[in-house]
Every structure is written in C-alpha cells, then in structure tokens.
Amino acid sequence: MINPTKADKIITGILESPNESKSVEFKPSIPWPNKIDLIRENDKVQEIIKSILAMSNTRDGGKIILGIERDDEEKKYLLKGVSEDNLKTYDQDLIFEHVRNFGEPEPKFQILNIEYDSKNFIVFAVQSFIFAPIICKNNRNLNRLENSVVYIRTDKPETKKITEPSEMREIIDLAIEKELALFSVRVQRFFKTMSSVKVLKSTKTDQDKFKAELKDIKVTMNKDEVITKIKSKGYWEINIRPSVYNSQRIEKQKIKDIVQSAVVKLKGWDYPHFRDSEGEPYPTLDGVEKTINWSNHIEFWRMTKSANFYHLLALREDWLKDVEYRNIWARGDELKGKKWLGVLGTLYTLTEIFEFAKRLATQNVFDENLIIEIKLYDLNNRELVVDSFNRMPSSFPRMAKISEPWNYHTQTFSVTDLLNKSDQLALESYLDLIYLFQWENPPRETFKNDIQKFLQGRI
To answer: Which of 4, 19, 43, 132 is at 20 to 30 A from 425, Cα to Cα?
Structure first.
C-alpha cells in the first residue's frame, strides 16, 4: 500500500471543482490485480493503462484520479474516494512493472495516495514524453489496447488512438519541439562550459574535480557498515558522470526526480533501487543517496549536483543463502561453496547500467559527452556459470584467474552514441568481461538477442 500524503494546491484545486479535461481524467475506485496476466480480464485497469499512455503524449502530461464517479442525472462528479480494501492493492513497484510492458519507450509517472476531505484518492501523475512519443505495445492480446498505435487525449475530453493526419502532425510537431529544446540546452551548456574553461585554465582538470568529489564520498561511505558488507565479497563499482565538471549542473531539488525518471525496471529489482520499506532516497549536502540492505540486494548509490552518479552494488550471487541453480544438464548442488558469476545475470546488469545512463542522457544532465566507468571486484577463482534452465552449460569450468578487479576502462561516450546504441555498448562491455573467463568465441548474436528480449520485458 502507498503511504498517504496531503493534497498539493493543484490536486486540491481539481478536487474542489472536479471536471475532466485534456490533462485530467477521473476513474472510480477499483483494485489493481497482483499479476500482470490478470489484466487481460480487467477492462477497467486496461483503460487506466491506455489513459497513462495518452497522457504521456500530452504536452504537459496529466493526472488520472481514482475514487471519483460521474452522476449522469445530476451531471456532476462525486468524490467517493478509494476503498480501504482497494487501497491495499496499489503498490508502486508492482504497477510500474505492469505498465512498462505496454509502452515503448516506457511511460514515466508517479502514483500518489492523496488524502482529501477524510477520503483517499489514488492519483497517477503522468509525465509528458521526454524524447519520443509513447507507442502502445500489446504483446498480451488485451482487448482494450491495440498494438503499435499512439494514444492521445483530446479537448472533448477523451482518450483515443491517432486516426487523423492533423493528430499525427500535432504529436510530431511536439516531438520536434522537444528535440529542439534539448538541442538548445546542449548548445547553451556548451558555450557556458567553453567560457568557464577559459577562466579556470590554471585550476584542476575536470576529472581531477570529479575524483576529488568521489574521494569525499568514499571517506563518508567507508564508515558505513553496509558499505563494509558490500566490499567483503564480490561487488560492482559504477561511476557515470559528465566529461566536463560543473558543480551546479543540476538543481538539488531536481536530482531525485531525475534519478527516478531514469530508473530501469526490467526485472523484479530495479536499477538503481529507488524505494524500499525505509522510503525514497534522502538528501545530502550536495545531492541524494540511498542505501539498501535486504536479502541478496545490498547497494549504495549517490547522485550529486554535478551529475556524478556513484554506485556500489553487491554481487548478488555471493549473498544467496540457498543456491537455486537449475539446469536440465547439471546438478543443483554444484555451486555450493563456490564463487560464481551468472552468464545472463551479468549480461542483464551491464544492460541496466547502460540503459540507466541513456535515460539520464535524455534528461540533458550531460553535454555532448559522458564518462562511464565500471569495475567488478573479487574475480579470482570465480566460475562463469550458465544461469539458465534450458541452456547447455560449458563443457569445462570457465574460471577467472585475475587478482585485480575487471575495469571497463574509463570510457568517454558521445551522448548521441549512447542514445542510439546503448544495447551495443552494453554488449561490448560484456564481451570484454567474459573474455577473462577463457571465453574467446562467445555466441555474440545469442547475447545480442538476449539483450533485446530483456529490454522488451520478455524474460
């Protein structure tokens, strides 16, 4: 259940004088199914998903408010609220996981539990698309959603698919307008950066400043018992940052929203993990950070005003209490007491890292270039294992014999390349890593297809 919050001025204004519009839609109180397959039998939930897709294609996004019914005789809306039983079915992570399957790219929204006049209302606050219009993706044969169509909101108001040339022209114009705005911001940042470089010619280089910032973070972190726990076994160290240092690149109040919009939710656990039982990321002097210590999910991340993202992520294979290794050609107890690394799990993690960087890039937190540095620790005598039930395991143990961490050497990428081929960049980094496990001729096309299935939510 989502924790309740008080209504802000905008939502209060809507509830005080309830009327639907292009950016506001009302729905009655309904429960949300706990399994995605049950959505096929629930037309009302499908209509909510359709409205989320449509609001995403509206200039300023919109709000879908549950708990309001239409009285056709009185010609007015009744604030009924969402029942307590229905409220319990609304879980942000579950709903995000469901809805992302039906939009390409994924729609961005928040779910709020709003208290007003002693009643509770569920609000879907939908963000307008950032880079490209949202196209409906219906691979589950839902009767209320059509595959490969674009839904919009009209002034009537109503939610509908695009059928008229004028409607298509309007959304194309909006996409061009957004792209021009992004380009304008990049140009302004470029000239601002160039002017500042002249002034700071004799000071530290940009990378020295980022390193100094990370050093301060690490001094603070090393006192934390969760960080100590992460570093006690295998772990990932990820750093994503601009190529040019600007200590005030992002307003402090916007950092959390930027990270949340970039979070990757392609499997049961998001990257980086944004919200848990202890709440959302908390503020620091120069940014926001989050620490997670649950089961085999142990991590710490921080994002600063300079757009310097730093992430420590425990290697999940090392923290599984009961190894569940299932393969039709191998015994289930073969990994007990061993250090191992999953073939697919590792591929998915690297794909998430590059996808997260891509989503940050769509929000203009970088200039023309960015730097991605990835390290993986404690590889010596670790075995690479095919972590898939129906794939043939290796004919011999693939062991890494390297005492230092794998370092995907500090790479500078253009934002354009990242936006256009983040999947290819993830694959290249993966092939570089598994080479350490004596895998010189891996099935590149197979792994390429695995990445596409993962990004499409088909795993």
So the answer is: 132
264 pLDDT more than 50: yes
pTM of the full predicted structure?
A: 0.61
Q: What is the DSSP string of 134-182?
A: -EE---S--TT--TT--EEEETTTEEEE--SHHHHHHHHHHHHHHHHHH
SS3 assignment for 342-411: EHHHHHHHHHHHHHHHHHHHCCCCCCCEEEEEEEECCCCCEEEECCCCCCCCCCCCEEECCCCCEEEEEE
Asked if 55 contacts 186 with a C-beta cutoff of 8 angstroms, the reply is: no
Which tokens hold the place of 116? Answer: 């007003």
Quick check: helix, strand or coil at residue 131?
coil
In three-state secondary structure terms, 458 is coil
Residues 430 and 347: beta-carbon distance below 8 Å: yes
Q: How far apart are CA 87 and CA 74, in angstroms?
A: 28
Q: What does the alpha-carbon distance between residue 122 and residue 111 come to, in Å, rounded to a whole number?
A: 7
User: Residue holding tokens 């099935």?
Assistant: 443
Convert the pLDDT of each residue in 160-218 to its tens digit. Answer: 999 999 999 999 999 888 777 766 655 665 555 455 444 433 345 888 888 888 776 66
Q: Among 321, 320, 319, 339, which Cα is nearest to 380's?
A: 339
Q: What distance in Å separates the CA atoms of residue 239 and residue 312, rounded to the nearest whole number?
A: 9
Query: Within 239-321, where are the H helices?
Result: 255-262
Q: For 404-443, what is each residue's pLDDT tens digit?
A: 999 986 678 989 889 889 999 999 999 999 999 999 889 9
Q: Please give the backbone phi and psi of residue 389, each rounded to the nearest 5 degrees, phi first.
A: -65, -40
Q: Annotate 209-262 with DSSP letters as a single string.
A: HHHHHHHHHHHHHTT-HHHHHHHTS-EEEEEEEESS--TTSS-GGGHHHHHHHH
Residue 4, C-beta contacts closer than 8 angstroms, at least 6 positions apart:
113, 114, 115, 120
Report the chain's terminal Cα–Cα distance, integer Å: 27
